[in-house]
Amino acid sequence: MSVRKRDLTHTLVAGFQEMISRGELQPGQKLPPERELARQFGVNRASIRQALKALDVMGIVFQRAGDGTYLTQDASTTLGAPLDFLILVDGITFQELFEARRIVEPELAARAAQRRTDDDVADLAKAVALMKDNPQMGTEEVAEQDLHFHEIIWRASGNRVCQRMFSSLHRAISRSLNVTTLLREEGAPTSEHERIFLAIQAADAEGARSSMIEHLRRGESSILRATRIACPPVEVAPVEAAPVEAAQATV
């Protein structure tokens, strides 16, 4: 996506957010005509059309042939999640996402060990038991349970800012969890979750921190391995050096 197109897409999203907050636009509602949007945002109709196509791919709008463009029913949720939007538009990589998780999530796990309630411990125990007792669980369901496990830890950490921030981050990276589930050794994610849970249950902040670091390290390793499998290096035939005499003749 070109810089100009990306900037216009950002501008349209900001405009839609404002229109929704003012009650001028509702999910599922038809957008103003392209000529009106072009006038409103100070660009030509071709630019508006390209930006709307990008928003269509992101699931923010959909187009009805011969009728116009509409906001999707989930538009307000997507528009309200800036990180999700940036990942879609700016091409943030899974490596960058894992780096952000490695910076923050181990500390969240340590905080959870210090602040968890009996309800938090019970919820974590149920989450681990569900994964442990269902080894034949499909990859999508495993990814969903992984998300649930981490959400409990963020909640138990007692920091609402991190809860908001990492809910968006983990939703974005959950698309990669299917890959890590396929590539990890059988039972590995469950045993890692169990170690994190046992440390939190025992109020062992350092144990929870180190277990989370190892869990994320293994997950990132699986993603990198998957990337190499999907995009193997291209073998380039070596270029023969030109004879010294020929090279000198061209100087």
Strand and helix layout:
Layout: H1 3-21, H2 34-41, H3 45-57, E1 61-64, E2 68-71, H4 75-79, H5 82-90, H6 94-115, H7 118-132, H8 139-157, H9 160-183, H10 188-201, H11 205-230, H12 244-249
Antiparallel strand pairs: 1-2
Helix pairs in contact: 1-3, 2-3, 5-9, 6-8, 6-9, 6-10, 6-11, 7-8, 7-10, 8-9, 9-11, 10-11
- Oligomeric state, counting identical vs distinct chains: single chain
Any idea how many domains?
A: 2
- Which strand-content bin applies to the residues? under 5%
Which residues sit in consecutive blocks of at least 5 with pLDDT less than 50? 229-251
The CATH homologous superfamily name of the largest domain equals GntR ligand-binding domain-like
Q: Ends: how far apart?
A: 43 Å
What is the N-to-C succession of helices and strands? HHHEEHHHHHHHHH
Whole-angstrom Rg: 24 Å
- Tell me, what's the shape? elongated
Structural class: mainly alpha
CATH class label of the largest domain: Mainly Alpha
CATH architecture of the largest domain: Up-down Bundle
Structural overview:
The structure is a single chain. With 251 residues, this protein is mainly α. The protein has two domains: 3-80, Orthogonal Bundle (Arc Repressor Mutant, subunit A), CATH 1.10.10; 92-230, GntR ligand-binding domain-like (Four Helix Bundle (Hemerythrin (Met), subunit A), Up-down Bundle), CATH 1.20.120.530. Helix content is 72%, strand content 3%. A two-stranded antiparallel ribbon has the order 1-2. α9 crosses α11.
